[in-house]
């Protein structure tokens, strides 16, 4: 890309990458509904005591907001965006529903 032999048309994320601010997202190119965002999250068993959930949330927030974590994530070409507990739960439900719809529509089955 830096040599000029490769031209980036778009990133697959739902929004522009901070690492490639001049490269549009797929949606910005006019192709709606196509976005593949990678994400990682910490999940716990249902009915985990609220006190433990609150402690885990505080610790994860401190890690994600740390300079060291930002540096590691950046080296890997990723970006750290922390969602709150309710927002993350909503995100997982929506992402799962989106992939389920795609799987069902295309009759994708595991082997």
Your description of this structure?
- This protein has 111 residues and is mostly helical.
- The chain folds into two domains: 37 residues, no CATH class; 68 residues, no CATH class.
- Helix content is 41%, strand content 0%.
- It is flat, with a radius of gyration of 18 Å.
Low-confidence stretches: none
Q: Which structural category fits the helices and strands?
A: mainly alpha
Number of strands: 0
Kindly report how far apart the N and C termini lie: 38 Å
Describe the main β-sheet briefly. Answer: none
**Whole-number tally of structural domains:** 2
- The number of helical runs is 3
Computed Rg: 18 Å
Please tell me what the overall shape is.
Answer: flat
Bin the helical content: 40-55%
Q: Which whole number gives the mean pLDDT?
A: 89
What string, H for helix and E for strand, traces the elements in order? HHH
Strand content: under 5%
